[in-house]
Amino acid sequence: xxxxxxxxxxxxxxxxxxxxxxxxxxxxxxxxxxxxxxxxxxxxxxxxxxxxxxxxxxxxxxxxxxxxxxxxxxxxxxxxxxxxxxxxxxxxxxxxxxxxxxxxxxxxxxxxxxxxxxxxxxxxxxxx
Length: 128
Prior knowledge:
Layout: H1 2-23, H2 30-63, H3 70-89, H4 104-108, H5 114-125
């Protein structure tokens, strides 16, 4: 299930990048406008499909395991639920609102996991 979630998230990311590249070519004239509209539509897939499909299995494993702290599992489950809820709420809007768009890097993994990594290192170094 985690592999499926990572594959879905990577596929959505590759589709978005492809349309960013196609938006750079202004010939024919409609290509840029059409590419930007597809990018906005694909960004909704991060919230509806990509992030929940990745964070849900990543949350179930630490919750049911004794190796990692359960707080990581609950954090991933909260992220999966919040991304799915935001995707459902803003599904009928063409563009994502300003306060919601900065959450995209968290779903892509670029910098969003730094605080949990630091917490895990702190737990790892603490005496038992």
